[in-house]
## 1
Amino acid sequence: MSLNTLFGEKKAEAKKIVFTSVDQYPEAPISLGTTLSNFTGDWRTFIPVVNEDKCVKCYICWKFCPEPAIYIKPDGYVAVDYDYCKGCGICANECPTKAITMEKEEK
Amino acid sequence: MEYKPIRKVVSGNYAAAYAALHSRVQVVAAYPITPQTSIIEKIAEFIANGETDIQYVPVESEHSAMAACIGASATGARAFTATSAQGLALMHEMLHWASGARLPIVMVDVNRAMAPPWSVWDDQTDSLAQRDTGWMQFYAENNQEVYDGVIMAFKVAETVNLPAMVIESAFILSHTYDVVEMIPQELVDEFLPPRKPLYDLADFEREPFSVGSLATPADYYEFRYKIQKAMEEAKKVIKEVGREFGERFGRDYSQMIETYRTDDADFVFMGMGSLMGTVKQAVDILRQEGYKVGAAKVRWFRPFPKEELYELAKNVDGIAVLDRNYSFGMEGILFTEAKGALYNTDAKPLMKNYIVGLGGRDFTVNDVRKIAENMNAVIEKGELDVEVDWYHLKR
Ligand code: SF4
Ligand code: SF4
């Protein structure tokens, strides 16, 4: 079964643009392409952590994630793409077996 | 082609409409409000007469007028609108949008007092309340300056990619007829070539992109800095454009603060807009009577000409700041700005604020004389009687 997310498949090409000096920015605030270069996962406080011992591969989290930032690995377990996960906690809330816990992210 | 002006007797509002026409604006989106209405009526008339193919968008509010200008400008078009008072206030949110998205829209604001109580007469508080929106502001003294100001504002705005407001007085200019020297179309075209936009939302060849989407705390700050850099750059551009305008058409605008008989002046009157015409006339009379006075007309309030103010202030004993506006809880708005601009310098003239002409209260040569007498006494004594003088108040 292949239920991978868009991001899960395309991830190889993704490269975040990071500006380190004011001169690198465009003059006007325009987007510089798609989310392949604009990562959206850097404003969260909590991150979801999957415990595979409890996971029953129901994919409810995959279905509910609004980003979507959850993808399905070849072994059938789910994993979180932290480049795009915004830390909303919906996956943890929906998981029927409490296999996902939200943990404070250290930056 | 040699410059031969076309002289027309027009109101300040018609001068604005002709200037928009001669600037070859492509989109006008506007909503009527007294005393601005005859600007957009005149533009509608140009279109109805087949003189232009301007896209005219009649909208349901001023907020929408500015929104439509923003949309047009984001596709690279030259966009224009006009408003007054409550209409300008209703645009407020969109004004931030125009500057934030770096769109060189030009708007004429006909200064009108804010309600209540209702008033349709001259007062600068409407435009000055938009001080922090990232728009440049040019205050016209007469109908000629309204016409010249709009054409120059497009050139400055499109060079630095910031919007600009050209401001004229209700009725004193908007509905008063005067001779205006207009520039033949080919010569305006040479002075003001077609716009080269920073980006074009209607460019379907390039990768899709969005304008003004989210910037996190990691990036927002830099975009704000860029607006300030553009404002600083605008000071240079304004002087160059003003000089070029003078060389081509005989009226020099290279000074952001126009100085009039200030060279040997003991003190100067400083203010903005049409009231400075009255002040200049009074200066001539006062000079004959032995007062060494001059006038300093602040043409551009944003960007604020700090450096020019310093050059003026270091050579005078006093500055009488005439504010046809008020910031409640403080003082006249130009007064605050001028004092602030000089605080960290060695120029320390005595500065006094006269609140004049609010809501169209008549301000005459005789008033300037009375202020001169008071200012003279203040300077002789070396201390202020009051800092903020509600000059006309019935007591
Ligand atoms: S926390 Fe929100 S964004 Fe992140 S994986 Fe879970 S549902 Fe998706
Ligand atoms: S919702 Fe829970 S149990 Fe279902 S796939 Fe996601 S982590 Fe596994």
Note: The two ends of chain A are 35 Å apart (CA to CA).
## 2
Amino acid sequence: MHIEIDEISKQFGTTAALNPVSLSIPSGALVALLGPSGSGKTTLLRILGGLEFPTSGRVRFDGQDATGLTVQERRAGFVFQSYALFRHMTVFDNIAYGLNARPRASRPTKAEIVRRVTKLLELIQLPDIGPRYPSQLSGGQRQRVALARALAIEPRMLLLDEPFGALDAKVRKELRQGLRDIHDTTGLTTVFVTHDQEEAMQLADLVVVMSMGRIEQIGKPQDIQARPATPFVREFIAA
Amino acid sequence: MSDASSPVPFHSATEEAPVARWLLIGLAFAGLSILVFAPLIAVFVEALADGVAASLKSLASPDAGHAIRLTLTIAAISVPLNAVFGIAAAWFITKFDFRGKAFLITLIDLPFSVSPVVAGLCIVLMFGANSLVGGWLVGHGYPIVFAMPGIILATMFVTFPFVARELIPVMIEQGRAEEEAALTLGASGWRTFWTVTLPNIRWALLYGVLLCNARAMGEFGAVSVVSGKIRGHTATMPTTIEMLYQEYLSVAAFSVAAVLALLALLTLLLKTALEIRHADQLAATHRH
Ligand SMILES: Nc1ncnc2c1ncn2[C@@H]1O[C@H](COP(=O)(O)OP(=O)(O)OP(=O)(O)O)[C@@H](O)[C@H]1O
Ligand SMILES: [Mg+2]
């Protein structure tokens, strides 16, 4: 799905989290929102997911105005920074949650839900953890379960807020490749937030560098590295 | 962390030296004995002073029976209502950002800081037969004061903070992320509440409800002002106990008191039983 962000701004009281920003994300791209803490990355991602509404500006999905769509109508697979797994449910029930939440008419049968959850557990390479609770998983496993749960709703796009933020370097590398693979097999337009420039450059097709609620530069990783548009970008990617 | 093979005994950083520990435990136990166990035992001893038969006979009197039924009815109505209001208040305070939040939290505590007698008087002033609203209601056959609705109002006012106070810290700690996740997965707000919010707060809710219940059954000050203590009509267990005691009917007074104490103990037993039965889930929701 093609996502267009048109002059979006967001004000929290007196602080401007986003000055008007515009961005066009081609269908099927894997995009990194890169920037230091407080630059507005999470805010922009939450506006795409319908968890936050912009003060001004419009969002369009495939050319259609989506600014007023509710979070449920957006059908965005959202992976939260802390994963936000339902702690009182097993992994299986976590992943099945979105399917069970559908209205009766479009809800899959019990057997179909089992089939789909099993398939997702295989996709994240954790086929046996269905009966466990989130507290019984490692950080990396939780992250993958969160991804499977987001994919279960057959989302129109995938939004991830610092998906590897809380993990050690080795697991990060593994999961990075995992995300790339899942993106390539599903073909979903994917936006992920990171403040790790190496991660953005290695993983993304398109990198959006942000600072203080503004977009500093949009470009392919190699272009940004070769031709930083502003002194901020030059310094940030050198760090 | 200390090495397992090391001969040095390992102490956690928050652990006191043994002497201090035993002193503290002893002190706590002594305090509990004097303040809680001794009076509780005294109640039962006094109730049974003339034997079990005398005690049961006093409980079988119509007035005592009515008081027990009335108190249970009041609790059965006011506790669920307060649970609903408490959940709504805690939800509103923790899940939304708005001006005057701190003020609202203070307001929830108001019933704790206002004397119950004053609260009772306020209800009499507002709904008594001489007030505008009260006069109209009495005229139409719905008296509030000196009747059941007034007792329920007074009980609800006094016990309102219990549920909300238990829930607010838990809900603040849990944040909104799980609810937001449910919404992005397509769940409606209502479904999110039932499948995510409520299961996450159920232990705090249970605890709040049980405390609320114990207090609702035991409330004296506000209820005694509002109810008029009409025997066999508006006299609850606590007011009945006081009246019997004033009339030197010691066995009768302490027998009703013993029933009230038993109801409170039952409440605590229920809580403990539930905790033991769901210990594994409790652990699963607390770690994370
Ligand atoms: N709910 C909110 N209320 C008030 N201010 C907010 C809120 N959410 C974000 N902000 C402010 O908006 C700005 C951008 O925040 P945002 O969370 O988008 O940053 P970020 O780039 O995701 O940072 P980080 O890398 O630390 O997660 C910050 O100054 C932040 O304080
Ligand atoms: Mg962020």
Note: The pocket of magnesium ion (ligand 2) is lined by residues A 41-42, 161, 193 (CB under 6 Å).
## 3
Amino acid sequence: MRVPVSWLREFVTLPPDARAIADRLAMLGFPVAEIERRPTITGVITGRIADLQKHPNADRLQVAQVDVGADAPLTIATAATNVTAGQTIAVATIGAQLPGLTIAPRTMRGVASQGMMISAEELALPGDWFEDGIMQLESSCALGADVVDLFGLETAVLDVEITTNRPDAMSIIGLARELAASYGTGLRLPQIVNPGRAAEPPGEEPNVLIESQDCYRFVCQRIDGVRVAPAPAWMRVRLALSGQRPIDNLVDVSNYVMLETGQPLHFYDARAIHGGRLIVRSAHDGENIVTLDGVTRTLSPAALVIADDERALCLAGLMGGAVSEVGPTTTAIVLEAANFNGARIRRMSNALALRTEASARHEKSLAPALTDLGAARAAALLWDLGATVYQPHAFGGPVTRAAAIALKVADVQRLLGLSLHAQQIERHLTALGCEVDRVEPEVLAVTPPAWRCDLAIAADLIEEVARIEGYERIPVVVPSVAPHEISSGAFALESRIAGALEGLGYREIITQSLRDAGSVEVRNPLSEEQRFLRDSLVPGIVEYLAENASPARIFETGEVFRDEQGGLVEESLLTFGFSADPLDEPPWRDSHFLALKGDCERLLRKITGRDAETKRGTQSGFHPGKTALVTLDEREVAHLGRIDPRLAKAADLQRPAYLCVVNIASLPAYETPHYRVPSKYPSTYRDVALVIGVDVAARDVERAIVATLGSLCTDATVFDEYRGPQIGQGCKSLAARMTLQRFDATITDEEADQAVSLLLDALRKEFGAEIRT
Amino acid sequence: MTELASRLDDVAQRFDAAVDRANDEQALESVRVAYLGRNGEVTTVRRAIGTLAHNERPAAGKLINDAVAAMERRLQAAYEELESRSFDAELATSIDVTFPSIRRPAGSIHPVRRIIEESCAYFVRHGFAVVIGAEVEPDYYNFDALNIPNDHPAREGFDSFWISDTLLLRPHTSPMQIRTMQEHRPPIAIVAPGKCFRRDAVDARHLFQFHQVEGLLVAEGIHFAHLKGMLTGLCRELFGEQQNVRFRPSYFPFTEPSAEVDTTCPKCKGAGTLKSSPMGCNMCGGSGWIELGGAGMVHPNVLREVGYDPDRYSGWAFGFGVERLGLARYEVDDIRRFTKSDPGFLAQLS
Ligand SMILES: [Zn+2]
């Protein structure tokens, strides 16, 4: 909300510096997004055109004698066309400073001009919001008065942010009240009394029928003798500084009252109300209304309208209708100051995609008591403009006093950690308009003011006390936390995984969870590319690898989502791997794969304390011949392999990618390894070369060696593979080394050789292996 | 005897010459074998002792032993000389130590995780646990239980991605606060980091997928001063000991009193201006403060919802945006860099 500091100053005494005011507002809970400084303007005073003559030497110029309250009038030549004798206008005198302009004496075609009559634009106001030519002031203005002071043109305008719980502060008076309470200075509120006393002429008494529970109060008042004209200059300037375009005196009064008091108003042309009464009701299904912005809107019963006997006249709390719009021929109006259910107005505003200054206030649920204040203020302004104001009528519920809230003085200390006396608490709350009674020495009964619907419980009051006392007065204390049983296990596991992968040379990335494919759909996506929740981390990672020109080693942990029999399943996955240039290797070997497998084994060992086993497997999106399933204690926990080259091509991957996918929840808990004392006798080893079928897995050969030799064999590792013409079709040669050792004695060569020959028999039998030496 | 002596002399002379010719260890070893080895020349001479008279033998033996000792000394000296020459040669070599290093692949954890881990480590030191949970949660945990009933204007502040009538991608990690309070009795001391989603238009300051760290402390006697204590400590942990923290009143349905938390802009140190930029500090917009997020005392309705008596227990909660912290901490110009994970970006911040 744009808040001219000069308008605030009408109600509260403030420090001169706008920055200090902005800081104070921020520390009250109203941050100031911007301080708009006004340009320096001096030497502009009010004057009256006492005499106006054609310029003797120029057709397009006139020469005015301007009375500025001094002994002699000023002679001013002007080219403006909207001036006539008798007008009150703003005059920049010799030496006056305007934005980018200093007024100097000058002679215009032989006439010495002693100043310049000026336009709104020259006062740094939006030119197209005001009349063309010279700005017109009211004849009631004292002559020779400083225009900058008169209109508050030099003080800054603050862009204040107001939280949704404080619609009462979406007003000049609301913010002035906050500042007055904080600075401890008084609030100078004008006595706002509704001038309407007289009864309407017979048959013109306004009547309201409230059919909806979402209208709590409706104050209504008939005003006759209005004539549409520009509003007074001071009002137009304030509206313009506040970012509201001046329209005419009626629209401007309603906007002015809304900005000042926070109560939105609506004026109906009295002639347009057919049947003589207003009805607050839900719209009929398909009912049309043309709103003031010229848009025809088709309504549903969710919309709340103010209607007459025949048609909807106004969208409640949002915008009036064209049919009852006030205009040049309007002579009588019916004023509405109503209070609605904020949620209803917000839903309607969302459904119609229509937001106005009025709806921004109504949708936060205003205080019903504001209706009477708003009506009174508007009636008083219109009265000042010469209208005939009749008595106000209130419909709907009465304005009830909020119940008193019990506030224990000790609770202030208990919640804030700041010790305050009952008197201090009472002073702060009173400054905000609360009524405070001391029911017991340490218990206060606090009645919130009528405009503060947000104050309902003791904690609300404690926040008020803290705000006015100042949050900075609350001490800084480090708590000591009592022991508890809450586990950090899941987080710690993820941290350890990330740390281990960092150690293995992988960089962590974070990709988007919302993607163009998946089984769980988002109802309101931001775009088609983000319509689904990801069901795998692989596509995001492949995309990342494709986008990066160089080979990369990366990992990501994250949630994936699946729709299973109507239920949503969410899982935490880890995916890591790399893109790498192809190696010069035979087709039956892939060292990149083996490197990834090695990293996977390292990782699982580090995280679970266990050794993983791998077996051949398949996985969609992976190369059918280069994919492995990884198990820990017979339980599948991961798969890894080369990304299917067709998928890689489709994703524009420039080089092969190898990824490993780990289901984090399936990982067994860490098992502490135990030390096994090695044999103190030396070991020996034997190498064997076997020719076996290509389908026999190296790991199965290793396992067979250990199984056959039992405790004599401490390790068996396949260390080489060869395929080629010498070996024969369908076969491969594997070289394996076994380490042999006894716990009770040094193993002899004879024992070792005997063991090997036993083993070879077994391998021949199990795999049909042919032994090469 | 004289003949033996002269033979020995001759052997010694040839030995000296051979040692002089030998210019590596292998050659020296050959010389040693040829002269002092089992079948070396000295052995041949020694065998001749047998032909001498008994009384001459001790003198001859001494003569040979002395000669052998002298030859061994000579050999030793030659070895040492050789070794010293080889050290000299090695030590005479040098390299350009500034030549580019050979680097193993560098691993790193994402700056978002680093901030989360450092923040959590701070809280863990003070007795908090770290809890993580699901990203899709029912509206009950995201809103209702947090005192944001349907139709509450604050729901619009959490413009969320909905999966069904009741399920949504969490717009904050607060569901973990509710779940933890429902599963445990006070004291509750947790931090809940994690990924969150809001339908915000993406720009240099906003993401629709981002991370939060939330904290919650509920026990008897917990008050706002404790909140200030912990968050001041957190900011000093992340940004340094000079850091100031400011609490401004604000509004959240789930806390009362509520606060916005700001910390000194680390770039301009709170001055709002930079020597390098006449336009004012671009990190804080000239205010000298960085907004971290919201905080406050847990609303009594939230405590009641999880079955805690608000007259007995009190507590505070806070929620900070991790990427926002990252912007300030690493002086990053655009928040989208945290989601792009560009290799250069990751390398610089690791
Ligand atoms: Zn800064």
Note: The pocket of zinc ion is lined by residues B 265, 267-268, 272, 281, 283-284, 288 (CB under 6 Å).
